[in-house]
Amino acid sequence: MTVCEYKPGLEGIPAAQSSISYVDGKQGILEYRGIRIEELATKSTFLETAYLLIWGELPTKEELKAFETEIRYHRRIKYRIQDMMKCFPETGHPMDALQASAAALGLFYSKRALPAPSYIREAVVRLLAKIPTMVAAFKLMRKGNNPVKPNDNLDYSANFLYMLTEQEPDPLESHVFDVCLTLHAEHTINASTFSAMVTASTLTDPYAVIASAVGTLAGPLHGGANEEVISMLEEIGSVENVRPYLEDCLLRKAKIMGFGHRVYKVKDPRATILQNLAEQLFDKFGSDKYYEIALELEQAVEEKLGYKGIYANVDFYSGLVYRKLGIPTDLFTPIFAIARVAGWLAHWNEQLGENRIFRPTQIYTGDHNVAYVPIQERT
Ligand code: ACO
To answer: With a 6 A CB cut-off, is 80 part of the ligand 1 pocket?
Structure first.
């Protein structure tokens, strides 16, 4: 067996072969199944993109209609799951509520084995359909309100915003939200996707796969940066304070939230699309001083850190967009999860194709032949 160099966090070590997505961090390219993200953001919808990611090709008109109809039909969640969610503490983080609820779906629909194509299809539909309903339900239930039932007349994104805000959204709002989901749907083997793949490789059920991935996404080093961008913009407080704030961060060697990326060394292509969407929202519904602060900060960071390859990442503008859509800050990461379920399911399906359980090795750094000391002799 070839002994490989040890890389903490497996950085740069290929852990799988995959044809789902591709990133070129030097040129700022992201492709899903070979299609550039810019094209999907302008021409596709989230559900069509999810279909593409999971089954490898764009659906025909009939296939897409059937997929959308099935998802619409499965949006409701069982009363028993709602009753369980009512017992969650209202102070709990929505990501913890989502992880527990996703795992609970397995109590009803689990199958632990190499699944048949019909089971894969049912699980894909159920997870894509029910995860947004569970996120919206917890948002209302933690305040003691009843969840809003899905509205069969609304498409995927409009229905989610409706369940969340109890109002039918403006078409621009639901379009912008749908593009946000498309942009977050997949991004090669990041931590949560790897977690999904490892869990999938044991042939456990897809609800456990998604629950593991949600738990991994919840960490501040992964899904939580857009929440921190909003806190940072609030702390900066004014356009005039942007450059003094940045100088202070640089002196303290503090990271500027929403900038830098392990892979992209130019501006993240998703940040460019999100900035454009934010502009459309602010043009239609009125500007926001935090957007002005963000524009000035991006300019200043580019001047000071551009030479290091530090540019705006996907999280920099997504928080501003969600805020403008009236979404509470602690739901930003669950929304990331709603989108990324598509990518996680694509990797689950791919993993099942030529499955081999993940079993990496380790470099043991402990002692050997250590004597057992009886408890009364220990100091
Ligand atoms: N602000 C200031 N300096 C930065 C930033 C930043 N946001 N990001 C990187 N740098 C600097 C580092 O200080 C380091 O400088 P040095 O070489 O002089 O020591 C250099 O750039 C390289 O930084 P690393 O931390 O080694 O880069 P890495 O690739 O490991 O980090 C990461 C990527 C974790 C995303 C980092 O840029 C960061 O913490 N950014 C802020 C948090 C953030 O926005 N996270 C969301 C990422 S996108 C996502 O997960 C969906």
So the answer is: no
Residues 304 and 335 in one domain: no
| Protein residue with its CA nearest to atom 18 in ligand 1 | 308
Whether 248 and 332 share a structural domain: no
For residues 264 and 268, give the distance between their C-alpha atoms in angstroms, rounded to a whole number. 6
* pTM for this model (two decimals): 0.94
Paired tokens of 376: 């009364």
Identify the three-state secondary structure at position 176: helix
Could you read off the pLDDT of 307-354 as tens digits, one per residue?
A: 999 999 998 999 999 999 999 999 999 999 999 999 999 999 999 998
**Given the structure tokens 């190499």, which residue do they identify?**
114
Which ligand 1 atom is the nearest neighbour of the CA of 184?
51
Separation in Å, CA 275 to CA 60, 173, 179, 330 = 31, 14, 12, 21
Q: Say if residue 214 is in the same domain as residue 343.
A: yes
For residues 347 and 304, is the Cβ–Cβ distance under 8 A? no
Residues 343 and 188: their CA atoms lie apart, in Å, by: 8
Look up residue 56 and give its DSSP letter: S
Q: Are residues 303 and 181 located together in one domain of the fold?
A: no
Ligand 1 pocket: which of 259, 268, 305, 311 to mutate (most atoms within 8 A of CB): 259
ipTM score for this prediction: 0.91
Report how far Cα 353 is from the mean position of its chain's Cα atoms: 24
CA atoms within 13 A on the CB side of 294: 28
What is the tens place of the pLDDT at every residue in 243-261?
A: 999 999 999 999 999 999 9
The domain in which residue 179 lies consists of 16-222+328-353
Atom of ligand 1 nearest to the CA of 255: 1
Please work out whether the CB of residue 314 comes within 6 Å of at least one atom of ligand 1: yes
Identity at 119, one-letter amino acid code: Y
| Residue 219 CB partners (closer than 8 Å, separation 6+) | 191
